[in-house]
Amino acid sequence: MIAFTADNHIGVTTQWSIKERGQDFMDSFHDMVDRLVKSKDKESTLIIGGDLFDTPYPPAHAVAFVQREVMRLHRHRCTVLGIDGNHDVSDGHWLEVCGICRLTDVPLPVVAGDVGLTVCGLDYRRAAEMLTTLREMADRDVKCDILVLHLALGELNRMGAASDVTAAEMMPMLKAMGVRLVLLGHIHIRQSTVVDGVMFAYCGSTEVCSMNEQKDKSFEVIDPVTLELSHVGIKTRPIEHVVISTEKEFSAFEARIDEGASAGTLFSAFITPDVTDGVKRLRAMATGHNALMRIQVMRVNGESGPSVAGAIDRTTGIIGLEQAIGLSFKPDSEEAGLIKAILRTPDSLKVTVDNYMKEGGAK
After folding, report:
1. Structural domain contains residue 363
2. Per DSSP, what are the bridge partners of residue 271?
3. Element (H or E) spanning 44, and its range?
């Protein structure tokens, strides 16, 4: 079996001011390793596509954790290969310390079952340098089936950036090298595309790094013959969006917390100024029940808060979800998720096209 993961970000110390999130990042990685060691394959390979650590200077406990997990894989005859990402770029230092074989521009043979494949990898680098390196590899007649990179692919990066590298720019070199599959880290959303017969695939992060990602995390398993990918789910902490705009909604949420029915869930709570002392009361609730909450004030009619609330009004009408997303928001973004929550809330916050346009939502 050949498995692929990326953007694990081990060593996060806190996220959204919630210290427990650091352990969550390690737990999700541990769950992935559990699934690999329990597989029936006598020999397997795990490829890490960069950002294994959250920083080039990870805390000692994070390094020790990864070392233990890699040792577990080695004991079960699983080879671990990897590259540096932009977060943990260290010239392969941490890969070596953790017992991970660093992928380079020299093809490395990988055997899965009766099939032999070759894999190359390049650490994170700027667009121009990436293209130059690929040209040099093609000029040297380097051949590999799988190429591992850490970059924002222009065709799949919905935000877009001048530093992106496009599949079209890389294609002449990839064709010359015989590359059939490009495994990508850097974007935390699981997605893929085929360009001129070459598959480009992100596995996404193993833990939620921002609210505009998929909440269902996984790693990829690669078919050694067809190089097709399939997802294997990873257990992560549940994350639930909650919109609170009235005292009745606050009381209903408080009752859920009191009952302990959602213990272990991380709540991303959006609360409007209509709820008196809402933030203070939510913080007290979180402290008193040891509940995990990310609390944000939602702006209504020009008040301070997240920018999405510029599209929120309590007057008339409701904007269609598809139209709202089409105007500005990415389909899987935090803003789009909030709109969905609003649309599911009867007699609560409503979104109007008129107010949306007045607030400058459509750029």
Report:
1. no
2. 244, 297
3. strand 44-48
DSSP class per residue in 237-299: --EEEEEE-SHHHHHHHHHHHHHTTTTTPEEEEEE-TTSTTHHHHHHHHHHHHT-EEEEEEPP
Phi, psi of 4 (to 5 degrees): -135, 135
Residue where the block lists tokens 């530093």: 163
Same domain, 180 and 277: no
191 plus 259 within the same structural domain: no
Residue that terminates a domain, selected from 191, 217, 234: 234
- Rounded Cα distance, 133 and 174, in Å: 12
Q: What is the pLDDT along the chain (363 residues), one digit of tens a residue?
A: 899 999 999 999 888 888 899 999 999 999 999 999 998 777 899 999 999 999 999 999 999 999 999 999 999 999 999 999 999 999 999 999 999 999 999 999 987 767 789 999 999 998 899 999 999 999 999 999 999 999 999 888 765 555 578 999 999 999 999 999 999 999 999 999 999 999 999 999 999 988 777 789 999 999 999 999 999 999 999 998 888 989 999 999 999 998 887 788 999 888 888 888 989 999 999 888 888 998 888 765 444 444 333 333 322 223 333 343 444 445 556 655 665 555 554 443 444 434 444 454 444
Measured distance CA(81)–CA(45) in Å, rounded: 7
Find residue 45's DSSP bridge partners: 2, 79
Whether 331 is covered by a domain: the verdict is yes
296 plus 225 within the same structural domain: no
The model's pTM is 0.79
Same domain? For 282 and 264 the reply is yes
Q: Interior CA angle at 73 toward 67 and 74, to 5°?
A: 85
